[in-house]
Amino acid sequence: MESSVYVIFSSTPYRIGSMIRRYTGEPYNHVSIALDPELKEMFSFARRYYRTPLYGGFVKETPSRFCVNGQHAFVEICKLSVTPEQHSALSQRLEHMLAHQDYYLYNHLSALTAGLRRPVVLKGAYTCVEFCVDCLYRLGLPVTPGKYYSLEALRLLLKEHVIYTGYLHNQGDFDKVFYHKRPVTHPLLYTLRDMAALIPRLHK
Questions:
Q1: What are phi and psi of 170, to 5 degrees?
Q2: Phi then psi dihedrals of residue 65, to 5 deg
Q3: Contacts of 81 (CB under 8 A, 6+ apart)
Q4: Residue 67 forms beta bridges with which residues?
Q5: If we measure between CA atoms, which residue out of 68, 73, 64, 80 comes closest to residue 166?
Q6: Measuring CA to CA, which residue among 185, 181, 171 is closest to residue 65?
Q7: Model confidence over 104-117: pLDDT tens digits?
Q8: N or C: which end of the chain has fewer CB atoms below 10 A?
């Protein structure tokens, strides 16, 4: 009996997403992992809240995060066939990461060196692409954790698994926590704290 894991490449309707696409020349700027075909829950490394573009980490995403001011994200969805054991193992890892979200940080250092095609490997810190590569490696796909992959390279690797290309329409509940307004100092302080926390991990 087979199970499935889904990889979602997205062109997010955010200013930073648009800036990234202009810089890379690629159609997508984000990638997520999902375990259910309805994509009610997706997992990635991204901003924690709508108004905190630099304050990021491991997050559980809902489709409502991909619809901003009436604009829906354009996506490419890949379906990977896996064993029930692989599906269960990945599910357990994601649940563990959710339970320890404060430990898992967005890898700003690796994002800054992406133009050099040289990732900065840090324990417990990932970009969305690095997180996806880690998941694919655990599922037995031919990828190498710690190696640089562009989003486009990852797409080409999975091109035979594409099942849908189009807009991701909002299904499910509105993510009130994600869109809740916070004081300006909140994201600034937490972003600085998380970036400072990356430095000691350089030596581990």
A1: -65, 120
A2: -70, -15
A3: 2, 3, 4
A4: 72
A5: 73
A6: 171
A7: 999 999 998 988 89
A8: N
Nearest partner of 167 among 45, 53, 16, 11, judged by Cα = 11
Give the helix, strand, coil percentages of the chain, each rounded to 5: 40, 25, 35
pTM, to two decimals: 0.92
Structure tokens at 121: 């490997």
H-state helical runs in 38-166: 84-99, 108-112, 128-138, 151-157
Quote the tokens at residue 89. 């193992």
| Greatest C-alpha distance within the chain | 50
Q: Which helix (H) or strand (E) holds 178?
A: helix 176-179
**Segment 124-176, tens digit of pLDDT:** 999 999 999 999 999 999 999 999 999 999 999 999 999 999 999 766 667 87
Nearest to 126 by CA among 114, 143, 115: 114
Amino acid at 172: G
Query: In one letter, which amino acid is 50?
Result: Y
